[in-house]
Amino acid sequence: MTDIVVLLPGDGVGPEVAYEARLALQLLAPDVEIEEHLLGAAAIRATGSPLPDETLAACRTAVAVLKAPIGDPEFDAADVRPEQGMLRLRAELDTYANLRPAVLGDVDVLIVRELVGGLYFGARGTREDGTVFDTCEYHPRQVERIVRRGFALAAGRRGYLLSVDKANVLETSRLWRRIVDEVAPEFPSVRVEHMLVDNCAMQLATGPERFDVLVTENMFGDILSDLAAAVTGGLGLAPSACLSDLGPGIFEPVHGSAPDIAGQGIANPAAMLRSTALLLEHGLGRLDDGRALARAVDEGLALAPTPDLGGTATTAELGAAIRAQLAVDGFPARA
Question: How do the domains of the chain map onto residue ranges?
Fold first, then answer.
């Protein structure tokens, strides 16, 4: 049976960078079928829903989901918003493990963020006196599975796992720290340490090269991963993977839909292509192909930078330069 990757072109510059991702994926995995479906503002306009039933059904049966950025200012204050579709898709596929690599020179950090629990998914509301509340909630099973994922990834890298929390203040963080210590003996090859999130933010900003794998809860991971991206080139270049234990993962760039430059052909597709590299590695199990694409993106950026990096290359020109580097890097038969 042919593996199917669902491609969600998204909004704004999404279709432009998604096209470059499609070309790269077809080059490296010609045996994989690619299906396009709607998500976000485009889906709202077409169906009234940011995540149509047809899209969700296709994603459930796919081997992986490659998602371009979504969002449109038209829906920022609307009752139905593009981002609701993204959050529901993550929850429906139970993609609880968000991998955010940040690599530049001597810096090679992998942040493993719990994605479907915590403050973003806890009880919320408004009391009669006007007080508004959002609750950070974690079940031990939610913590254990993301911690175990962090240990496994660290064991395959440099063997150092940093668990980030706020255990001096938060009960959920004390649970987090306790479970990390309980799981640690199962991974004797991994050195594990704990660090408070505020100290971690300072250390990431001033000495990111000391880190290997960080594992943390949802909101802390949201903030720290953006900080790590900032010190390694910016959000415009940052990829991510959202993984499940049983179903397909979601692979997507971190940046937004940039509606101000949509249709101009100048969007930088690097983050989308780096996310495609993560899909090849974690979604299709093609480690060599994924690493080859990641290298080609780095080389292509140096040869044909887009305007956001001070160059003049178009989206298509950078995409072509990256595919040309794949040929140089050992894929002549498929280039």
Answer: 1-95+244-335, 102-234
Establish whether domains 1-95+244-335 and 102-234 are of one fold: yes
Q: What is the average per-residue pLDDT within 150-162? A: 97
Backbone phi and psi for residue 65, each to the nearest 5 degrees, phi listed first: -120, 125
Sign, Cα dihedral of 17, 277, 4, 320: positive
**Would you identify the CATH topology of the domain 1-95+244-335?**
Isopropylmalate Dehydrogenase (3.40.718)
Residues assigned a catalytic role: 120, 166, 198, 222, 226
Tens-digit pLDDT profile for residues 38-81 = 999 999 999 999 999 999 999 999 999 999 999 999 999 999 99
- Per CATH, the number for 102-234 is 3.40.718.10
Distance CA 46, CA 242 (A): 26
In 3D space, the residue among 68, 89, 61, 54 whose CA is nearest the CA of residue 20 turns out to be 68
Rounded CA-CA distance 69/271 in Å is 10
This prediction has a pTM of 0.92
The values of phi and psi at residue 201, to 5°, are -60, -45
CA–CA dist 248, 65 (Å, integer): 7
Handedness of CA 100, 143, 120, 220 (dihedral sign): negative
Token output for 114? 């719990």
pLDDT in tens, 281-333: 999 999 999 999 999 999 999 999 999 999 999 999 999 999 999 987 666 44
What sign does the CA torsion over 331, 69, 32, 157 have?
Answer: positive
Give the C-alpha separation, 32 to 30, whole Å.
5
What tokens appear for 257 in the block? 């839909």
pLDDT digits (tens, 9 = 90+) for 241-250: 999 999 999 9
